[in-house]
């Protein structure tokens, strides 16, 4: 009986290997084609933005990397490193400069910190305890558990970094799935639940200026370039309704694409509530982890106020590094680093490093500006609602390429503000939906570190994320456009 099974396994492995080599060959051919093709002059210069030979090389590497990321022909983090090597070999920039863009990025330290924090939450049992409390509210039906994670993620990320929210929720979702014995990459419920961690965090980032890093950047651009001041409340008038609409829509899409293979958890609702009520007292390690967890959240939420008080800048990485280092002081916690080392996803960290480096090279070579002008250069003849839709859709497409919402915002915001002033449209009417579009990073894992955090749990593939994300992106673009236009009509902006 074992021989046929073994033969089938070998055959499947051979077919998979062949497919991967085909994907690699296609990616290499695309690289060669884009690098060597002679683009018509009409394409190389778009609305004043030019595609230089250096930029064309960077574009070729981008296409190559995107194809390998989507097909997963080789491990995703090695694809990122290979892209950096190719950029250096093509002479786009020196390897040291390329690498320093990512390896010197603040997000690297952030990821190391959140992975350590997540590992301690799971190891000490606190994750399971918190999951039990959450389940006592949502019940044991998997579809409502999905809704619960989406809602909690969205609400929290209105007030703090979406990356931080994803970092908090990921270990909780993973603990629940581990408790149910659901296998990574096989469970549809597992795929939907971990994707909901990323989606909820991104959706909440639309609601307030605090929800997503590019939001305050956009506000600064509007004030500096157009003299337009957008208050916290001004933003919420548009952002909160859109967030509230997207929560049930995202829930419906996840249920459609990843219909849970189980309708309810093994435990009954009564068992879940009783377990939540009758949990044993917190252990010492749980108390320590909970205090450090809450301290991290408080520092994240009030980092700007603390920065003003101390007169120093506090990046998002600093709180989590300060707090997680407490774990390793003598006598603080009985859990040792070697026990949680395997839970730190170094491959995800490498992906972030490579993605940021690639995005910054695209920015420095002018490719990003060329893409942006190609997408947005001719919107002045459109109706207001279509203009908003094109802006939002363009930003969503740029999120695929740039691996950084901040980079996307840095490129696009000045362009759309200039466009609004040149065509006589209120700056906020175009600039605000452009800023909102930076949160719609639903297609590629590499579009934002928030997605990488959820992906690091290992329950879904890049294909899984893209399959649901394409539909979510299209629907979200429509919702953001109609929401902006609808509220704008009520406020007299359009």
Which key phrases capture this entry?
74% helix; 24 helices; 494 residues; 2 strands; two-stranded antiparallel sheet; mainly alpha; globular
In short:
This protein has 494 residues and is mainly α.
How would you characterize this protein structure?
The chain has helices at residues 2-36, 41-44, 53-71, 76-89, 95-103, 106-124, 126-138, 142-157, 162-180, 188-204, 214-226, 232-257, 269-277, 284-301, 303-310, 317-324, 337-340, 346-364, 367-376, 384-402, 405-423, 427-437, 449-455, 462-491, and strands spanning 45-46, 49-50. The chain has a domain at 107-212 and 233-344. The chain is globular and about 70 Å long. The longest helix has 35 residues, at 2-36. Helices cover 74% and strands 1% of the residues. A two-stranded antiparallel sheet has the order 1-2. With 494 residues, it is an all-alpha fold. The N and C termini lie far apart (71 Å). α8 (142-157) runs antiparallel to α12 (232-257) and α10 (188-204) runs antiparallel to α12 (232-257). The mean pLDDT is 85.
């Amino acid at each position: 009986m074992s021989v046929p099974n073994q033969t089938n396994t070998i055959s499947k492995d051979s077919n998979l290997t062949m497919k991967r080599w085909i994907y690699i060959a296609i990616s290499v051919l695309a690289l060669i084609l884009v690098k060597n093709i002679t683009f018509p002059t009409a394409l190389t210069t778009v609305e004043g933005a030019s595609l230089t030979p250096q930029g064309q090389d960077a574009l070729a590497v981008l296409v190559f990397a995107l194809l390998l990321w989507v097909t997963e022909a080789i491990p995703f983090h090695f694809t990122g490193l290979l892209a950096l090597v190719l950029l250096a070999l093509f002479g786009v920039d020196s390897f040291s400069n390329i690498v320093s863009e990512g390896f010197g990025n603040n997000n690297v330290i952030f990821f190391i910190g959140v992975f350590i924090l997540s590992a301690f939450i799971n190891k000490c049992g606190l994750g399971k305890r918190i999951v039990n409390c959450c389940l006592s509210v949502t019940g044991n039906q998997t579809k409502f558990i999905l809704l619960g994670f989406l809602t909690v993620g969205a609400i929290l990320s209105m007030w703090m970094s979406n990356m931080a929210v994803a970092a908090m929720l990921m270990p909780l979702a993973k603990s629940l799935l581990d408790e149910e014995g659901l296998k990574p990459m096989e469970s549809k419920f597992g795929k939907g639940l971990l994707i909901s961690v990323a989606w909820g965090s991104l959706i909440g980032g639309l609601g307030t200026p605090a929800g997503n890093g590019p939001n305050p950047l956009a506000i600064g651009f509007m004030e500096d370039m157009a003299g337009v001041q957008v208050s916290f409340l001004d933003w919420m008038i548009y952002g909160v309704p859109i967030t509230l609409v997207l929560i049930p829509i995202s829930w419906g899409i996840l249920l459609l694409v990843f219909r849970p293979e189980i309708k309810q958890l093994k435990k009954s609702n009564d068992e879940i509530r009783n377990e939540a009520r009758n949990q044993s007292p917190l252990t010492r390690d749980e108390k320590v982890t909970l205090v450090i967890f809450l301290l991290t959240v408080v520092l994240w939420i009030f980092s700007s106020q603390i920065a003003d008080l101390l007169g120093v800048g506090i990046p998002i990485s600093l709180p989590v590094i300060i707090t997680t280092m407490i774990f390793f002081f003598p006598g603080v916690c009985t859990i040792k680093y070697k026990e949680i080392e395997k839970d730190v996803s170094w491959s995800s960290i490498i992906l972030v490093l490579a993605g940021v480096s690639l995005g910054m090279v695209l920015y420095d070579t002018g490719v990003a500006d060329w893409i942006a002008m190609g997408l947005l250069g001719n919107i002045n003849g459109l109706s207001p609602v279509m203009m908003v839709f094109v802006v939002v859709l363009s930003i969503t497409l740029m999120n695929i390429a740039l691996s950084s919402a901040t980079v996307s915002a840095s490129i696009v915001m000045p362009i759309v503000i200039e466009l609004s002033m040149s065509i006589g449209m209120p700056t906020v009417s175009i600039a605000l939906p452009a800023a909102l579009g930076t949160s719609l990073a639903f297609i590629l894992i590499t579009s934002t570190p928030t997605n990488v955090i959820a992906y690091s749990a290992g329950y879904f593939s890049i294909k899984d994320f893209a399959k649901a994300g394409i539909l979510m992106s299209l629907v979200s673009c429509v919702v953001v456009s109609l929401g902006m236009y609808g509220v704008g009509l009520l406020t007299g902006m359009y």
